[in-house]
Structures are given as C-alpha cells and as structure tokens.
Amino acid sequence: MAEIETYTDDLDVIVAGAGHNGLIAACYLARGGLKVLVVEAHDTVGGMTCTNPMAPEAPDHMINEASVHASLFRLSPIDEELELSRRFGLKQRIIDPCHVQLNSEGDESIAMWRDANKTAEEIRYFSPRDAKAWLELSELFDKAVTIGLPLALTSIVRPDPKAVLKVLGRSIRNFRSLMPLVKLVTGSHSSVLEEWFESPIVRACLLSGLPFMDFKVDHSAFAMVYLGALQSTGIAMFEGGTGAFPAALVRCLEEAGGQVKTSAPVEQLLLKDGAVRGVRLQGGEEVFARKGVLTAFSPKSVLNHLLPEGVLSRQLQTRAKHIPTANRGIADYKLNIALKGRIEPRRHQAWRDKKGWGADLRLPTLQWATYEETLAAYANSIRGEVPDVIPGLSQITTAFDPSMAPAGHDTFWFWTGLIPVDPRLGWETARDQITDRVISDSAKYYDGIEELEIARRPLAPPDIAKRFWAIDGSVYHVEPYISRFGPGRPAFGFAGYKTPVPGLFLSGSGTHPSAGICGMPGRNAALKMLKVVGK
Length: 535
Description:
- The chain has helices at 20-31, 78-82, 84-87, 116-126, 128-152, 161-173, 175-186, 189-196, 200-205, 226-232, 244-255, 299-306, 314-321, 346-355, 371-382, 397-400, 427-442, 461-468, 520-533, and strands spanning 6-7, 13-16, 36-39, 51-54, 58-64, 92-94, 99-102, 109-112, 236-238, 259-261, 266-272, 275-281, 286-288, 292-295, 330-339, 365-367, 393-396, 410-420, 453-459, 504-506.
- By secondary structure, the protein is an alpha/beta fold.
- Helix 1 (20-31) links the parallel strand 2 (13-16) and strand 3.
- The chain starts with 5 loop residues before the first strand and ends with a helix.
C-alpha cells in the first residue's frame, strides 16, 4: 500500500470547489492576507461555468458545459473589486435582446430588450393592452431589484447594518410599490400572467424560461423578478466562453499567492480539536489549514456526506438531510451539439427584418413553446412523462464567439428545467427520447441543425450529478422555492455562511442569495470568513 501524503505547507484556508463561487471566495481570502489552496474534483476549473472541448468527437468545438449567461453577476461589485476586467483579462458583452419568444404557429416573435420600452413596442403588435401592462410590471421588477439588492450583498442572518439601512430607505422611497410587489411575488406564476396579459405569446414569453416550481402554486411568480436583473444591468456573456470567467479568477488568485489543485475530489472533512481544519482527498491525501475550510459546492453533500457522523446535533442533521434537491417533480437537462456549418433561424429572422425590428436571432436565446404547452410540460413531468414539447432556452454559442469552433462551424446550446425528475421509462431511455425530441423541435426553427450535426452531448440529471457533483442533478443545489431563499437557504441554521461547526464555512449556489452565474455567495462567504477568522 502506498504511503498516504499529508500536506500542510502553512495553509490558512482550504476552499473546496473551483466553481466561480469557490474561486471568487478564494480571491477575496487571498487578497485579505490568507494563504489559500483551492481543491477541485474535476480536471479543469469552473464547475458549471467551465468551457471545454467536445472531445473526443469534436475536439475543435469548445462548449459551455452548463451556464452561458452571467445572469446576476453584473449586479455585484465583484468585477471592480477583484479588477477582473481591468487587470486579469475578463471580457464580457451584454446580449440585447437576451431572450426572444418565437411564435410556433407563425413567423412572429417578441424580443426581451434591456429597454422595457423597446420590449413594449414589440408586445404592442400583439396587444396594446399588454404593452401597457408590461411597462407597469417591469417597473415593479426594477423596484424589487432596487430595494432588495443590498441584502443580496451581505449575510442574510447577520446583515451589515448599512445594508439594512439602505433597504429601509429604498422601501420608504418606493412605499407605494410595496403592496403591489407583495401581491406579485406571493401569487402563482400562471395567475399573475393571466391577470396581467391577454395575449398567449406574451404569457409564453414570461413563463417557459422560468420553471422554478409549479406554475400554479402560490409564490411561484417571484421567479419573474429575474427580469429586473435583465433590465437593471443587462445580461452578459464572456468572450472566450463562460470558462473565461474562472480563468480570470485563477489569474487573480495566483497573483495574490493562492493555488489551485485539480483532480482532487474531497472525500471527507477532517477535524482537529473540535474544528474543521482539513480535507481528505480521494486516494488518501490529507490537507490541513490553520483557519478552516470553505466549501463551494452542494451544501447537502457537505453536511450529509463529508462531515463525520455525530458532528451535527440531531436537529441540525435532520434539517441538512431534508434540504430539497428533487422535490419539485421537474429537473434540468442540458444539450450541446457540434455542427459542421452554420444554422439559421431564417423564417423568424426574415419576419423581423421585414418589420424593421432588428436583432440577430442567432445571438439571443430562443424559446418557442406556447403558454399551454409549457403548463402541460410541467403536468407531464410530475407524472414522470417526457413532455410532447419540451420548453427551454436555445442558443447558437458561436454567434457570440466564432472562435469557439472551426471557421464556418457552429455550436448549439439548449437548456430546459421542464423534464421529469424521475421518468417512468428510466433515464437510459428517457435521455435519448428527450434529446431526440429537443433536436426535432429545434429543427423547426434552426435550418440545418439535423443535417450538420457532428456530435451531441446531452446531460440529464444523472449526468449532471456525476459531472458537477450535484446531488440529484440539481443545478440550483437547493430547490428554488421562495422559502429556500434568505435565511432558509440552504436550511435554517446554515444560512449565514459560518456553520455551527467551528472552522466550516459554506458557499456556492446553494447559499444566499442565489444560484446562476452570480458570484455573490462566494464574495459574501469570504468576507464573513475574513471577519470571523481574521487576517
């Protein structure tokens, strides 16, 4: 038996997980004067923000394996504070319009622009009443972001008093909007859309890309607050692929003296004198740090599988056990396709060009499921059936960055959150059925997608779980119920980054404030750890 190596090297902090939140936390900790080592299970950094070759089938086609949009990142001060764009080569560009709803029964479309007035102009073609309603609703989204943002940038358990004062001040200034906001976020997604809008295509536009929970359940309408981020700072992508973001973070970290170790899955957290002080990696190598460990992946995995048995109280262990990751009845699916040519949404592009509305439809995400098809997809999914039409977001990644494939070639990206979490057919059959259905539907809108395919890379929940160490294949790590945000994320007693176990800090998409390419969980956790353990 080989001798097990123990590695210390006077480390202050170990960060487990080199997704963007883990790397952001490591950068803040290293810049705060601590010696930091990041350990990552995969052989490349980035987690769900990685960009890698589609090897071996199409090694010259670079694919964003999971996320593409920096949905909430631009709301934070991270880029400025870490000097990612100014000094470490990060380049991001706003996608405007970001999302476009296609009419599946015609050539029309609605583009979601950063400017609410431009979106309203397109909606007016379908319904003048809906255009007016959109402007009113989008103003509420803006108010929600304005009021709530300070709390997203601090611990939700022990918030910075300055953040609380900002929220109070903004609430007073927007007092008349508070009750309409409460009605909005506490209503069901479908009831709000049917109350506010009469046109089916407008309802579909505001539904199919936001499958947080049952559309007919109270509080599900809060998912639409995402649209406030779209209007506030715009939604961006990173040049060089999403993986350019973690690459810039690694450069920032290394300049501050931090290190990254890949192909190093954490097998167990190690305690010394009652505090978490290290990790055991697969293979037996043990790494210790003086100040503690910050984890930046699934909190359910950390608390239930990596902590030694008996460390948590019975009450807290029960809460950790019941962190929801597969309770909604719906799950996530991802597809990348490498293509030996260009694909074009010609029919809908020609209609927009004729109208003079602009927008290159190769660039934004396109969605085409109708309002009724989206509601039916949820109903089918919770019964364990693959929907007849699978609502989701599609995009030609190379339209944004042609360097991600050989000249004249494309890569295609698709995501849906509306497939069954437990298909009756079993995943081996359901995966193929979902993939064939997505490609068949996409071919109705993207000319050439079937004929030009070189290779496909589908990721169903079991694949997402294996690739990204995400329990149940949940890209959120914690189900996005409204009750699982704020002090309930990931569970009561674990929401302040600092856990009840000395030396153990949580970060990642399963912690406050949100999943997605956000970065605020990493920043907030690092600032909390710096405050607790000192420089």
